[in-house]
Amino acid sequence: MRKCVLVVMAAALGAANASAADLYSKVPLKEWKLQPAVDGLNAKLEAIGGSIANKAVFGSQGAVSIPVGNAFGLQIDGAAGSFGGQAFAATGVHGFWRDPSRGLVGIYASYTNWDRFGGLHVGRVGGEAAAYLGRWTIEGVAGVESGNS
After folding, report:
1. Strand partners, 104
2. How many other C-beta atoms can be found within 10 angstroms of the C-beta atom of residue 147?
């Protein structure tokens, strides 16, 4: 039995593009105040287009970030388009704790559907973390993936 796993990524659907260097502060600990994980409801929308392996890809993707209290946030991602003449759609959700001066710890789940080979379905769930170290950020994601082949 031949098993084939295909993952289509036109662009990463990940956490927000914050620069850790902009968040670094030398404020003494006694004067330090916890910054919000998400400073308010915000969203982004992108158009995607081009080719991968000589196959046309086009569509759009976006994300909405929502504050949940001061130290927690929720991000909902989505994408839809066409790859090689076949429709694809993906959605994801991230729940996280974030301190903009230190890092992020969270969980995520996502689902992708591609109308190819009779319908390809892939689900993922896992954890994610980031450490903000002055001008540097170290990020990691670990989880499991399942689907049909």
Report:
1. 98, 130
2. 16
Q: Which two tokens stand for residue 132?
A: 């903000």
- Angle in degrees, CA 113, 118, 123, rounded to 5: 30
In single-letter form, the type of residue at position 138 comes to I
Are 6 and 114 in contact by the 8 Å Cβ rule? The answer is yes
3-state helix, strand, coil in the chain (%, to 5): 5, 60, 35
Give Cβ neighbours of residue 10 (< 8 Å, ≥ 6 apart). Answer: 48, 52, 57, 59, 61, 79, 81, 83
Contacts of 147 (CB under 8 A, 6+ apart): 5, 120, 121, 122, 123
> Can you tell me which residue has the tokens 């593009």?
17
Q: What is the pLDDT along the chain (149 residues), one digit of tens a residue?
A: 333 333 333 333 334 444 444 445 555 555 556 788 888 999 999 999 999 999 999 999 999 999 998 999 999 999 999 988 889 999 999 999 999 999 999 999 999 998 776 778 999 999 999 999 999 999 999 999 998 86
